[in-house]
Specification:
Elements: H1 4-18, E1 23-28, H2 41-45, E2 50-56, E3 59-64, E4 68-73, E5 78-84, H3 89-93, E6 106-112, E7 116-122, E8 128-133, H4 157-164, H5 171-176, H6 186-196, H7 209-239, E9 271-275, E10 278-282
Helix pairs in contact: 1-7, 4-7, 6-7
The chain binds a DNA duplex (16 and 16 nucleotides) through helix 6.
Length: 288
DNA sequence: CTTGGGTCCTGTGCGC
DNA sequence: TGCGCACAGGACCCAA
């Protein structure tokens, strides 16, 4: 599920529930996800007030009034499930309980004093959580070396041209490299390269500078549109249950092997290739 | 330094 | 209906 737009969608869904809320209880059901949880995580969360929710790359950051920040990564299958609270209180009241029954892979459960609950569920356990002094966050080993935010000011044509210079790796891999640009994943790299007319197989350092620079606004557009789509489905979620971050999204190439290319006037067919173990989708006719 | 491959884990969908 | 296999939105680690 989670690339930058999905993480941002999750953050926006959690913000009204968590920002300004005090944690009444934190239940930690196992010692680790991808890495061990920090020492005494439940105790360090309990009683803390969440000042604000931020996002950096694919990480959700919850700044606490204790001076620490909770770092959350959703991995491949992580989900944040919201229950209780104002939005669906009436619906849940008819079932005579405040929260849905616990499910398999509910690893961390956070209750707020207002009666809302956020459950971190992650079947594959590639996700992560850590606590770090807020002022030391930028030096945290998970944050260090992450490239500029693609929707921020530090990501522009000259930057990307310089980042690609001399690279022998395929542009697909370069864009997946979080050190070059933050937050892109397999889907949106495929989508952006298609819109830019660049083959994922092309070496990053062998693309003419103007074409590289043209990738920047394309990446911005793809991500912005995806966030907008996620935002609209958020409303559906809030009245239903459990699928925050899951939204229908129409991709032009991702998962469309064998289908006709949607580029106007293009007669190509979408092809799937495997690059460093991951599927790439592109149109050999209009992506060069 | 860069680069490619292996690895962690569970769930799902497909062909037989 | 069961079984085995390929594959899934991430990213660290290590060898070359």
């Amino acid at each position: 599920m989670p690339e930058l737009p999905e993480v941002e969608t999750v953050r926006r869904g959690l913000a009204p529930v968590l920002e300004g809320a005090r944690i009444a209880r934190a239940q930690v059901n196992r010692p680790d996800l991808r890495w061990p949880f920090p020492e005494r995580m439940a105790e360090r969360l309990t009683g803390a007030r969440i000042e604000q929710l931020r996002r950096r790359s694919k990480y959700i950051l919850a700044d606490l009034d204790t001076g620490e920040t909770l770092i959350v990564h959703l991995g491949m299958s992580g989900r944040m499930i919201v229950s209780g609270g104002e939005a669906n209180r009436d619906m849940l009241a008819q079932f005579h309980h405040l929260h849905p029954a616990p499910e398999k892979h509910d690893h961390v459960v956070i209750d707020t004093e207002a009666g809302a609950r956020v459950t971190f569920n992650d079947a594959r356990r590639f996700g992560a959580m850590d606590l770090c002094a807020t002022e030391a966050l930028e030096g945290h080993w998970l944050m260090k070396g992450i490239g500029p935010e693609p929707l921020g000011n530090g990501f522009d044509g000259p930057y990307l041209v310089a980042a690609f210079r001399g690279r022998r790796t395929p542009v697909k891999s370069a864009l997946l490299d979080q050190k070059i640009v933050a937050g892109l994943g397999n889907i949106y790299v495929c989508e952006a390269l298609h819109r830019a007319g660049i083959s994922p197989l092309r070496h990053a350092g062998r693309i003419a500078a103007p074409r590289v620079a043209a990738l920047v606004p394309v990446i911005r557009d793809v991500l912005t549109e995806a966030i907008a789509a996620g935002g609209s489905s958020l409303r559906d979620y809030r009245q239903a249950d459990g699928e925050l971050g899951y939204f229908q999204h129409t991709f032009r190439v991702y998962g469309r092997e064998g289908e006709p290319c949607q580029t106007p006037g293009c007669q190509g067919k979408i092809r799937r290739t495997v690059q460093s173990g991951r599927s790439s989708f592109h149109c050999p006719a209009c992506q060069r």
